[in-house]
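User: My notes are a mess, but here's the protein and pyridoxal-5'-phosphate's SMILES. Can you give me a structure?
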Amino acid sequence: MRDFMELEKRYAFDVFPKRDIVLVRGENARVWDADGREYIDCVAGHGVASIGHANARIAEAISEQARTLISCPGIFYNDRRAELLEKLAAIAPGNLNRAFLCNSGAESIEAALKFARFTTGKTEFVCAMRGFHGRTMGALSATFNPKYRKEFQPLVPGFHFVPFNNFEKLQEKISDDTAAVLLEVVQGEGGVNIGQREYFEQVRELCTERGVLLIIDEVQTGFCRTGEMFACEHFDLQPDMLCLAKAMAGGVPMGAVLCAEGIEVPVGRHGTTFGGNPLACAAAIAAIEFMQQENLAEQAREKGDYLVSKLRQLELKRVREIRHLGLMIGIELKEKSKPYILALLEQGVLALPAGATVIRLLPPLTIGYEELDVVAGRIRGVGV
Ligand SMILES: Cc1ncc(COP(=O)(O)O)c(C=O)c1O
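Assistant: No problem, the inputs look usable. Here's the predicted complex:
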């Protein structure tokens, strides 16, 4: 294991604080390190591996497509891409019938920002404090945390931040220059903060009234994670653009912006080399079909409720609050979460932070109930 770590340390341009394990294999909700040690994976590639690691149907779809056609740029039509676009329109909330396909969450945000500027002819955006939308310059401009932003100024101008779930403050920031409001339904990186129905209703109404577009970032919450195919469905929230990525293609890099009627960008003004490539499209078709056939949204709902009720029964002494929507779970502690996340790793459970005091759990939605029992037991075991 040391050898691989040394190689990465020597040759990688490392931008992540690393944990000292080398993951080499996965199967459903479990992963193994190079020494053969087993872990229950509640990181799941930052919420990517919703359909489980080494999912056989994805493996088949990828290998068949790899033998058929991997790349096909957007200047040509393609069978897999057409099929995926039809599928996305079928599962999209409301009238989000057209999609721009790309390769990551940040790219989907970048595209949505550009589409909003072009469509409205306006340049400003209202975003939420504690919101996270990615690390590229546009997405970073919409991201709140000063830790990510401060050395990269000047960012794109015209981004305003208001407290999440506070309609009055948001209303105050809307002006005649506002192109769009950009929000997550559940703030993931920001601490698993869940938006309120009334807030979303008011924001939707205001946007419609003021001719401001509503962009919803479901890069983390999309594709069944929260107990619906898309988290905005919990609140009957109808975005003008919906940004997606992470779990979309079963682990193959892919993103999308689903757009309502009226969102415009003419030919030649935006593009991507890899976006909508047949390999990723084939993987996304297989992943979405798996989600539908296995009713993963319902599984996420039931398993999220199960794990959270287990955790609540344990009456953990360091816990301030447990927040969750489906299998997106935030355990807010009365102190810093990092030592407990490292202790969990030692105990064979991979977990994530979300801000300084939250332990975030994003396991594959296919995780077993016995595994959830083990996770709850080990969380107690490390002294949470
Ligand atoms: C809500 C949200 N938006 C955007 C992004 C950026 O996605 P990516 O890392 O694929 O660029 C993330 C990543 O964590 C996210 O959670």
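The two ends are 29 Å apart (CA to CA).
User: Great, I'll file this with my notes.
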